[in-house]
Amino acid sequence: MTTRTALITGASRGLGRALAAALSDRGWHLVVDGRDPARLAEAVSSLRRVTAVPGDVADPAHRAALAEAVGPRLDLLVNNASELGPSPLPALADLRPEELQHVLDVNVVAPLALAQAVLPALRAADGTVVDISSDAAVEAYAGWGGYGASKAALDQLTAVLAVENPDLRIYAVDPGDMATDMHQAAFPGEDISDRPAPETVVPSLLALLDGARPSGRYRAAELVPAASR
After folding, report:
1. Which of 141, 147, 171, 218 is catalytic?
2. Distances from the Cα of 150 to the Cαs of 51, 65, 70, 117, 190, in angstroms?
3. What is the pTM of this model?
């Protein structure tokens, strides 16, 4: 049986790290990245069959390195790396254009550019794309305008990519609130320990990968019963 390969961005922490660990346990070969080389190395130190490529997904050279590391076949691309923007979160009236540009570069341009780079490898494996979205893409929360707009754009790119590539499964997934570094940055000084751990979302993602759902946008909470998470 051919070992399946997954490319997961933002795998040094949070949901990306939790998903990488779960797929490693299933015997997948992993190509992962993260901006902090030391933190990425620590995150993958216990994983098997992993290629760690430190770097920023907004950097075209880094995306090219990821595509090269994948090789000719790719079963799964998970665009998980995200940029929140300034912390504390500013109102749109105070969000500087260059800050919004950076959020869009990481959350919209980079996922599409990476998908373009590995599309031949995905097609060779009849692969799957999972773009990590947010409820901020569809709900209007004060302070979340830049991040939410970027995730709304990512949702649309995901939907169009699915229409244009009907032989692939292409999903946008809203994982819900999680106790992550990024979510903490959105609420500096507050206790967010009541939020679910990223590991609780992994069963939903695995259910999506194991199932035969059509391409589309899904909420993690809808993919598995609450008792299974």
Report:
1. 147
2. 29, 24, 26, 20, 25
3. 0.96
Tally Cβ neighbours within 10 Å of residue 16.
25
pLDDT tens, N- to C-terminus, the chain (229 residues): 689 999 999 999 999 999 999 999 999 999 999 999 999 999 999 999 999 999 999 999 999 999 999 999 999 999 999 999 999 999 999 999 999 999 999 999 999 999 999 999 999 999 999 999 999 999 999 999 999 999 999 999 999 999 999 999 999 999 999 989 898 998 998 898 899 999 999 999 999 999 999 999 999 999 986 545 5
Query: Per CATH, the architecture of 5-228 is what?
Result: 3-Layer(aba) Sandwich (3.40)
- The answer to whether 171 is a known catalytic residue is no
Domain spans of the chain? 5-228
Quick check: helix, strand or coil at residue 30? strand
